[in-house]
Amino acid sequence: MTIRGDMLQRLKGRKPGYSLEQAFYTDPEFFKIDLEEVWYKDWLFVGHECEVAKPGAYFTLQVGAYPVVIVRDRQGVVRALNNSCRHRGSRVCNHKKGTSAKLVCPYHQWTYELDGKLLFARQMGEDFDKTTHGMKPIACETAGGYIFINLSERPMDFAPLREMMEPYFAPHNLKDTKVAFESTIIEKGNWKLVWENNRECYHCAANHPELCRTYPEAPTATGVQGAKDDPVIAEHWAKCEAAGLPSEFRMHPTGQMRVARMPLINDAESYTMSGRPAVRRLMSDQVTQSHIGTLLLFHYPTTWNHVLKDHAITFRVLPLGPELTEVTTKWLVHKDAVEGVDYNLEELTHVWTETNDQDRQIVEENAFGIRSPAYEPGPYSPEHEGGVMQFVEWYTTFMTHRLQGETTSIARVA
Questions:
Q1: Peptide bond just before 301 cis, omega within 30 deg
Q2: What span, in angstroms and rounded, lies between the C-alpha atoms of 226 and 323?
């Protein structure tokens, strides 16, 4: 039996409500299939429009085997390019971020326009055609101030994601923000373990004392069921919707993405130890109401988000190996907010810096135990781990269709 056949058989035989078999979290061949069928074919969150606010601004990232550069061109269009020179393949942009009038390969100085067109390649002969040697483009779209890419040569329709995001995100005006702080941690666990840990708060009371000062542990807030029947949440939605802020829970039929605005606890307005706003300068003039809670966006496989009235925290997941995952967190504030005047960086970042490190330890201990020959899939809590069950069901269904040669994506059932 082929590796793909083995994977498909295990997915079809998985016991509902239980975790995945060991190979899905540890096996290099299974990880390779994840890359090929998920990460190389679907829309991935990579960063924010504010990070490339002006022409020539760029940042780089690595998705599996693909080096990528995101850049704003001279016409103001955000583009994604394969970060590989068309001469001998060297990486063109070798810094994490920067600003450049042109994209120049450091190896032999082949020079590209910001849209990827080749401008200069010295002494290549009379027959050399510059027009056929531009940097290869990658599908790139924006929504609500976020940048997404798709590495497939035939990317799926992006419209369903944009249609879900933009009504919720438009009032927050994230295009006019800046990254106040950025943190990247490496978690020694499979990307699915990172997501499973994120999708429940069953572990929060014992592991996240800082977060639990403001964020609700209730399954109705963290999961995918029961929110409409929770009177606190229902009242919160009604108040926010009346103020012109879309808030009610929405999940796409495929389960790949969902959005909702959830209340915080203890009269909190922001993720701080006091619960008070961390930033005096609000992100948007359209969002000034008190106690609007946090706007949550989840989109598998790359991002979860918390958008408050004073700042936003965004998370990007990228797979580095079968048991290695990169998680990048960015704190966004109004573009004119001044550190030391409008906000204190320690106060702004403390809750999620601590929470991220706690989650890193949790994921690594989880991965350590799964490596044991004695490991076998265990049952999820129907009350507390509905969000985890939903993620695993999404992954199982998604991969089953892909391995059977079917095309499934957010576009097909929009």
A1: yes
A2: 33
What's the rounded Cα separation, in Å, for the pair 145 and 167?
12
Which amino acid, residue 133?
A: H
Q: Amino acid identity of 186?
A: I
Look-up of token digits 């039996």: 1
Helix (H) or strand (E) holding 159: helix 159-169
- What is the distance between the alpha carbons of residues 233 and 227, in angstroms, rounded to a whole number? 6
Give the C-alpha separation, 136 to 81, whole Å: 6
SS3 242: helix
What CATH fold (topology level) applies to the domain 44-150? Answer: Rieske Iron-sulfur Protein (2.102.10)
Strand partners, 78: 72
Residues 69-80 pLDDT 10s: 999 999 999 999
Which residue type, as a one-letter code, is found at position 214?
Answer: T
Tell me the per-residue pLDDT of 217-257, one tens digit each, with 9 for 90 and over: 888 787 777 788 899 999 999 999 999 999 999 999 999 99
Instruction: Count CB atoms within 10 A of the CB of residue 127.
Output: 5
What are the C-alpha distances in Å from 234 to residues 227, 304, 362? Answer: 7, 22, 32
Walk across the sheet containing 118-120 and list its strands. Answer: 103-104, 111-112, 118-120
Q: Where are the domains of the chain?
A: 44-150, 159-370
What six digits make up the tokens of 380?
A: 């999820």
User: One-letter amino acid identity for 253?
Assistant: P
393, 366 in Cβ contact below 8 A? no
Encoded amino acid at 162, one letter: R
Residue 323 φ then ψ, to 5°: -130, 40
Give the 3-state secondary structure percentages of the chain, helix then strand then coil, rounded to 5.
Answer: 30, 25, 45
Question: Over 50: is that where the pLDDT of 412 sits?
Answer: no
CATH class of 159-370: alpha beta
Distance CA 220, CA 217 (A): 9
* Window from 132-136, 362-366, 409-413 with minimum mean pLDDT: 409-413
3-state secondary structure 91-160: CCCCCCEEECCCEECCCCCCEECCCCCEEECCCCCCCCCHHHCCCCEEEEEEECCEEEEECCCCCCCCHH
